[in-house]
Amino acid sequence: MLGIIAYGSLINTQETKTQQKRPTHTIPVKLETFKRSFNQRPAWRENTSKHSAVLNAQASEQNWLNAICYCYADFDFTELDNRERGYSRTLILPDKITNYQGHNLPTLEKIFIYLGKKEYKNSDLLPNPDYLDICMAGAKEWGKIFYHDFLNTTHINNGILLRKYLPTS
Fold first, then answer.
1. Closest CA to 1 of 99, 112, 106, 113
2. What is d(CA 81, CA 117) in angstroms, rounded to the nearest whole number?
3. How far apart are CA 63 and CA 169, in angstroms?
4. Looking at the 3D structure of the chain, how many domains does it have?
5. Could you report the per-residue pLDDT of 86-119, keeping only the tens digit for each?
6. What confidence score (pLDDT) does residue 49 get?
7. How far apart are CA 117 and CA 19, in angstroms?
8. Residue 2: which region, alpha, beta or left (left: phi > 0; alpha: psi -120 to 50)?
9. Which neighbouring-strand residues pair with 154?
């Protein structure tokens, strides 16, 4: 069995409805030593405005982020790799993942996360408003604690957390 860690728009279940393969488990998790930031220029959107950033995760010993782990018995990555073409599919260690209380992650042989490619990183950008709405709606789907954690572990590139960037949260 393998896991795919989703930390951006794919935490919103509406974004996964078009996938042909359905996960066997969908588990909210915490991922240690990673930082989530709006510092990724989209690879497939032709938006050049300052408000065009999407989420990226990068290694960070001081941070953690919450995410959804989609678990599959097997998975053809062709469609997802195309969707996430501005990112590199990367193997991560299972010891970096903890479950939210009340959720149990099955034993996974491999766990993948998509990390932003260097050529798409842009720390001057601010969140794309439509993309942000998708992510916020997705975070709310997983309950108050998950939503609160999302606001407090998502960074804007002007040095503040998402909860301080939003007008009201």
1. 106
2. 13
3. 21
4. 1
5. 999 999 999 999 999 888 899 999 999 999 999 9
6. 78
7. 23
8. beta
9. 36
DSSP-derived letter for residue 157 is: T
Check: CB of residue 135 under 8 Å from CB of residue 62: no
Give the pLDDT confidence score for residue 127 in this predicted structure.
Answer: 94
Q: In 3D, which of 153, 162, 156, 165 has the Cα closest to residue 33?
A: 153
Q: Which two tokens stand for residue 103?
A: 């959720």
Contact (Cβ atoms closer than 8 angstroms) between residue 28 and residue 100: yes
Q: What's the one-letter identity of residue 167?
A: P
- The pLDDT tens digits for 45-77 are 665 678 889 999 999 999 999 999 999 999 999
The rounded mean pLDDT for the chain is 92
Helix (H) or strand (E) run with residue 135 in it: helix 129-141
Tell me how far apart the alpha carbons of residues 20 and 119 are, in angstroms, rounded to a whole number. Answer: 30
Q: How far apart are the first and last CA of the chain?
A: 37
Q: CATH number of the domain that 129 lies in?
A: 3.10.490.10
- Whole-model pTM: value is 0.93
CA dihedral 13, 161, 3, 121 (to 10 degrees): 100
Domain that holds residue 120: 2-165
